[in-house]
């Protein structure tokens, strides 16, 4: 089994993981802080949200937040890293086809299904990445590259097998991921098309784009 790992070497472990307090409430408060930060960052933007607002959303004193995270920057990094770790783990567990065309279809349907279930996480992962400091930014970029290389490998295999008609697997991978992620900007669960129907439409567009 392939393993996806992140090694982060910056300011001890400040950005590697959120600090945890010991005690009966830490397992509840920590996730609540993350959920509140995710909602507020997605709604108002990272720069506009204060630690005081996050504390008020959770219902704790602002000083209590620092038992769980060193600062707002570390909190943002934790959200982005958690999203990427979840994405890579979910793709790792996704059933794959035996040939490049089937694997590409699996990737397309997986990406849309995963993203549509996490609109807030997707939004901040693209819109707030620029607010990370250089070291954590590089760490998230490394994880994103790992995911992109999964699609690039499928495209390269299909090209080499004569299944896909394309010249640049890497550039094609960038273009396809941008197209697939864009579904979050317009899809509504109560809209005319169901999620499976949307996935089928995007799979058809992808298949045509790679000349399959």
From TrEMBL:
<dbReference type="Pfam" id="PF00440">
    <property type="entry name" value="TetR_N"/>
</dbReference>
<feature type="DNA-binding region" description="H-T-H motif">
    <location>
        <begin position="50"/>
        <end position="69"/>
    </location>
</feature>
<dbReference type="InterPro" id="IPR009057">
    <property type="entry name" value="Homeodomain-like_sf"/>
</dbReference>
<protein>
    <submittedName>
        <fullName>Transcriptional regulator, TetR family</fullName>
    </submittedName>
</protein>
<dbReference type="InterPro" id="IPR050109">
    <property type="entry name" value="HTH-type_TetR-like_transc_reg"/>
</dbReference>
<dbReference type="InterPro" id="IPR001647">
    <property type="entry name" value="HTH_TetR"/>
</dbReference>
<feature type="domain" description="HTH tetR-type">
    <location>
        <begin position="27"/>
        <end position="87"/>
    </location>
</feature>
<keyword id="KW-0238">DNA-binding</keyword>
<dbReference type="GO" id="GO:0000976">
    <property type="term" value="F:transcription cis-regulatory region binding"/>
</dbReference>
<dbReference type="InterPro" id="IPR041490">
    <property type="entry name" value="KstR2_TetR_C"/>
</dbReference>
<dbReference type="GO" id="GO:0003700">
    <property type="term" value="F:DNA-binding transcription factor activity"/>
</dbReference>
<dbReference type="Pfam" id="PF17932">
    <property type="entry name" value="TetR_C_24"/>
</dbReference>
<dbReference type="InterPro" id="IPR036271">
    <property type="entry name" value="Tet_transcr_reg_TetR-rel_C_sf"/>
</dbReference>
């Amino acid at each position: 089994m392939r393993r996806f790992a992140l090694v982060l070497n910056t300011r001890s472990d400040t950005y590697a993981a959120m600090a945890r307090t010991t005690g009966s409430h830490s397992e509840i408060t920590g996730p609540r802080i993350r959920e509140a930060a995710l909602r507020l960052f997605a709604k108002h933007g990272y720069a506009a949200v204060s630690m005081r607002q996050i504390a008020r959303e959770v219902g704790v004193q602002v000083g209590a937040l620092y038992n769980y995270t060193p600062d707002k920057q570390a909190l943002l990094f934790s959200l982005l890293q958690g999203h990427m770790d979840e994405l890579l783990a979910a793709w790792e567990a996704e059933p794959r086809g035996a040939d490049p065309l089937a694997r590409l279809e699996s990737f397309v349907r997986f990406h849309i299904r995963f993203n549509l279930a996490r609109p807030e996480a997707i939004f901040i992962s693209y819109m707030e990445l620029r607010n990370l400091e250089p070291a954590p930014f590089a760490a998230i970029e490394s994880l994103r590259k790992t995911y992109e290389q999964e699609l690039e490998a499928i495209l390269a295999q299909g090209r080499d097998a004569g299944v896909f008609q394309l010249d640049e697997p890497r550039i094609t991978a960038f273009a396809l991921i941008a197209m697939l992620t864009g579904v979050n900007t317009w899809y509504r669960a109560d809209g005319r098309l169901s999620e499976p129907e949307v996935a089928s439409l995007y799979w058809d567009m992808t298949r045509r784009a790679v000349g399959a």
